[in-house]
Write a structure and sequence with these properties.
single chain; 499 residues; alpha/beta; FAD/NAD(P)-binding domain; Glutaredoxin; eight-stranded mixed beta sheet; 11 helices; 22 strands; 27% helix; 28% strand; globular; binds flavin-adenine dinucleotide; FAD binding; 2-polyprenyl-6-methoxyphenol hydroxylase
Length: 499
């Protein structure tokens, strides 16, 4: 069997895998990506990029492409109704975009997965990724020196062996890699299964070019409900119901007529019966040695809150700088292990938040008092913390997973307090924030000792970061505070890099 070597092999080219490839490229590592499908997603699926995701996409140079790809009016309407023509039981959003302008310069974008993946793919390739479609990973074995993965070209049928230094499993909710590694999942389990149709229809001006999501409650629909969404294309919609078996085209037409409240509608069916599983599950571990898992492979949640797609992209962003430093020999296994320590606790919260949203919005019959209390969206999206991981913990660290983004503390594990003028200095590598020029020499020496780059950015108000004028703040490539203080910078950097 033919063999080839890859520093990083990414299995799966969805939002998570393509993001990981793009951000790795940004950090100078060319990943090999294998995807069993012949191309990117053909279903709109996840839509909506929150400001933290947009900031990451800005760093990768694709913010403008995302803003240009969204519909002219990015406002979003979410309603609970009997049909899309009414009656409406409850309006969750009425053509608004969530307003985070008090905390973040970044707007939100409303791009669907089918367009998002194309942008990510193009940028990942531009940055050097080798993305191969119609190529399936069939087995994985790891030893102390590397990982051996058998991949098969599904067009020619030829199998070859990839010897990878590291593997990223971005292979979706069924994740064969997770199975091969014997990593279990925990949580509320599978909540429902369904089938989806994509169709074209002229539903009138109210539907034309608008971002709409209707959760339908209607006894005439299978299971008593369904979900109706617009897509990025005019007059193209998706409709899903909780039916396990395939539905024939005539029945789809009937169901769409019920859902739209228009008995004479003649929908043109473009695709029928794509399967969906709604579940709330988190992997027991997000990594094992040289293999790290991201996206739906580690976390699935009901779609109520749009964090499935956002967190898949942000997993790629969070993991890429760590993996790149390990590949370049600048960091140790400890930095990779922090992927689990940092992303898993946050994921547990996201899954429970979206489960609670689902119960409140759409499945009140499931309410049993165990649902999580809602966390303010700004805090959930812009105020999450990593109290454990690649940071130097402070003695009074309380383990809080969230803080108010309007009152950032600057403590290790938190997003670095920033404003519009400083936000763009973060994202590529480590940065040291300091007022006193003595830090220039200390930064140069620490950087030299550890073989990394560490530019110093002068700040006039160190108190804002919770240090005195004599102190400094070490900020990670992902914009989180790693350490702050007046002490030994080199020791701090060494701890963060897992060396
Ligand atoms: C109909 C639908 C609607 C959704 N709506 C929303 C929404 O509104 N908001 C939201 O946030 N989320 C939504 N989601 C969820 C969202 O799509 C996922 O969270 C997101 O796609 C996760 O990205 P991923 O890259 O981890 O996984 P995927 O996009 O599933 O990508 C995994 C990839 O791995 C590939 N793969 C698997 N095994 C192998 C193998 N052995 N070899 C090679 N390749 C392999 C698969 O083919 C797949 O392309 C929706 C999902 C569906 C299905």
């Amino acid at each position: 069997m033919e063999r080839e070597h890859a520093p990083v092999l990414i299995i799966g080219a969805g939002l998570a895998g393509l993001s990981a490839a793009m951000f790795l490229g940004l950090h100078g590592v060319r990943a090999l990506v294998v995807e069993k499908h012949a191309g990117t997603a053909r279903h709109p699926k996840a839509r909506g990029q929150f400001p933290h995701t947009m900031q990451a996409l800005r760093i990768a140079g694709v913010e403008d492409a995302f803003l240009a790809a969204q519909p002219a009016d990015p406002g979003f309407t979410i309603k609970i109704a009997a049909t899309t023509s009414g009656p409406v039981f409850h309006t969750i959003l009425a053509g608004e975009t969530p307003d985070f302008s008090a905390f973040s310069r970044n707007a939100w974008a409303n791009v669907s997965q089918e367009k998002a993946e194309v942008i990510l793919l193009e940028r990942a390739r531009e940055l050097g990724a080798d993305v191969r479609f119609s190529t399936k990973a069939e087995s994985l074995e790891q030893d102390a020196d590397g990982v051996t993965v058998v991949i098969r070209d599904l067009i020619t049928g030829t199998a070859r062996e990839v010897r990878a230094d590291h593997v990223v499993a971005a292979d979706g909710h069924r994740s064969p890699v997770r199975e091969w590694l014997g990593i279990g999942r925990h949580g509320r389990g599978v909540l429902g299964e369904g089938v989806n149709a994509v169709f074209e229809a002229d539903l009138g001006a109210d539907f034309d070019g608008r971002n709409l999501l209707f959760y339908l409650r209607n006894p005439e629909l299978p299971g008593g409900g369904g979900a109706f969404t617009s897509t990025d294309d005019r007059n193209r919609f998706t409709f899903g119901v909780g039916e396990v078996d395939d539905i024939d085209e005539q029945r789809w037409t009937e169901l769409i007529r019920i859902a739209t409240g228009r008995p004479d509608l003649e929908p043109k069916l473009l695709a029928c019966n794509s399967k969906t599983t709604t579940s709330a599950l988190v992997a027991d571990r997000f990594g094992a040695g040289r293999v790290q898992l991201i996206g739906d492979a580690v976390r699935t949640m009901p779609p109520h809150g749009a964090m499935g797609g956002n967190s898949a992209i942000m997993d790629g962003f969070s993991l890429a700088w760590k993996l790149a430093m390990v590949v370049k020999g600048q960091a140790g296994q400890g930095l990779l292990d922090s992927h689990d320590a940092e992303r898993r606790p946050y994921s547990e919260v996201l899954v429970e938040q979206q489960y609670a949203n689902m119960v409140r919005r759409n499945s009140p019959h499931l309410a049993d008092g165990t649902e999580a209390e809602p966390i303010d969206p700004a805090e959930l999206i812009l105020g999450y913390r990593y109290p454990d991981g690649a940071i130097v913990r402070e003695a009074d660290e309380d383990g809080a997973l969230f803080e108010n983004p309007a009152e950032p503390t600057g403590r290790p594990g938190s997003h670095v307090p920033h404003d519009k003028s400083t936000v763009d200095i973060f994202g590529r590598g480590f940065v040291l924030l300091a007022d006193e020029s003595t830090w220039d020499t200390k930064a140069t020496e620490a950087a030299k000792a550890l073989g990394v780059e560490l530019p110093v950015h002068r700040v006039e108000d160190p108190a804002r970061y919770g240090v005195s004028t004599r102190g400094a703040v070490l900020v990670r490539p992902d914009g989180f505070v790693a350490w702050r203080g007046e002490g030994d910078l080199e020791a701090a950097l060494r701890t963060v890099l897992g060396r």
